[in-house]
Amino acid sequence: MFKRILIANRGEIAVRIIRACRELAISPVAVFSEPDAAALHVRLADAALCVGPAPAAQSYLRADAIIAAAHALDAQAIHPGYGFLSENAAFARACQAADLVFIGPPPEAIDAMGGKIGARQLAQAAGVPVVPGYDGPDQSDARLLAEAERVGYPLLIKASAGGGGKGMRAVLAPAEFLDALAGARREARAAFGDDIMLLERRILRPRHVEIQILADSHGTTIHLGERECSIQRRHQKILEESPSPALSPELRAEMGAAAVRAAQAAGYVSAGTVEFVLDPAGQYFFLEMNTRLQVEHPVTELVAGLDLVRWQIAIAAGARLPFTQADVSLRGHAIEARLYAEDPVTFLPAIGRLALFDPPHGPGVRVDSGLVTGDEVTVHYDPMLAKLIVYAETRAAAVERLRRALDDFAVLGLTTNLPLLRAIAAHPAYAAGDTHTGFLLDHQLDAAPPSSTPPELLAAAAIWQLSPDSMRGVPSSNPFEALWRQSGGAIPLRLVSREETHRLTARPTPDGWLITVANHELHLRVVATGPTELTLELLPAPPAPSTAQRPPSQPATVHRPPSTVPALMRFRLAHDSATGDLLVAWRGAAYRLARPAPLSADSATRTGGADAAASLAAPMPGTLVRLLVREGEAVRAGQPLAVLEAMKMEHTVLAPYNGSVRRLPFAQGASVSGGAALVELTPDDPA
To answer: Catalytic site residue 292?
Structure first.
């Protein structure tokens, strides 16, 4: 067995591998880019070396720097994780040449399965069914357009070297084909340095089902059942589960055998995944093979009772698999939900500091993450924050556990997709197992943040602000402290939430606080408090104050607990260090509360003006890869104006109304910051 392994990755997968090394008494060492110098995987490693600046091409994708770091840190092997160099055959060969063990498949197997076209041809030769399409060498626009006509619409354009939905476009009609092809090629060149494309018929309402493979170097290849990964956004998975609710034992055995044949045809060794698409009639077709560990590998680990990372390491060290296919036993049900720093409606990535990261706990709950409270999420890398994995005896029980765990997950300081994950988990179609890759488009889930702020949450914020204990960690002085110390009567407060100003009054009582919010009155007692949490009990209404103490107003609706059972509410709280806003997590939702800013003459002047033009801003930092219009050009509502590339994905900016292009502040190829005006339009109708 190895004494020291270098992890050539970052984030949650690097942390996952480090923990497996610890359990095997192997010393884990790491590499990092300049902005990752204080990242969690660096803090957990025995040693770490910087391999370059933020761009992955200058750090995590630098094979020479990573191999040099492995030698400098006395590592015998390199684990690439997933992404970056994990499916790079040249890197695997470079490791061999440098007398380092690459913990993954042989480079020949990576070559065989690394391109979608070659993998498709190999699968066909092994008797594995493939989706009808085109995978020939002629990549001219004319040939691809002709082949698209032969395959038929709708179809998919896919980058041969692609993965994670990058370099992929769905095309519904011939008129869309050439523009979609150009966009897919650009994205593929940027992400993979390879713009070879293949065409496939688009299977309608398919399920995405993949088979986990495990193979040693002594001729044993087995499968560990399937994972269903049908819940996707932008062709990227967000929820995965094992087993699939769509597979019978017979179909599972048939697909597993087909996956084993494909892996054996490639000479595969280590852990890998063979991906299939399953149509509504139960027919399956080979998609590709991922020659690495998958993001969603934990669900297989839980149902199979095997640690895939430990087996990757053991196989790389020359171990034999001590079990056969007949020995594999799959029990229970596991579900993984990917938590991203992104808008849950637009899917645009978010960046910022994690003011609070408080994951759920409990039986059958696992959270894999490479971040903790205080860490930064930057524009440079994938925005995944964590993977929440739940396990239970049945699928129904696992879904209930997932719902509870999502409600318990508190993330403050940046926008996340938690509302979307909660909406999926709560949907009856998901509970019934009626899933396919168009699930989000079919159901149009409401993943927007709550439209109103509950009075209970406003009351909790008021009590937190009025408590001297909350002064710890607050970046500025508490504006209510003097009132709290001096007033024995009602304290007036104002809080702004979702652009609405809420007026509150707080009055101390012998056993707590009486908080009035609009026409709601809550009598609350502080049960427990800490640096990031507040638990309140809803009490019966206290005796009514005298007329002098309560100004004449609309009668309040008094909130009382049902029966005599204590009504407890637990809130998680943090402050935004940049703005001083109070951030609150409650019942799976996150809220931002601010004190109203005083109106200034400058701000009043800037809100109006005769200029009727409007600016279209970059939703995030990125590179302006295409300008689709010229200054002075007339445009219509919905027309594409520019293409921004950020976090390895392209985002098209559309015209919000009819008008003309007044100014283009940036040239094509420019780097722009989030919020920068990309296009300035003058509307045809100023109203």
So the answer is: yes
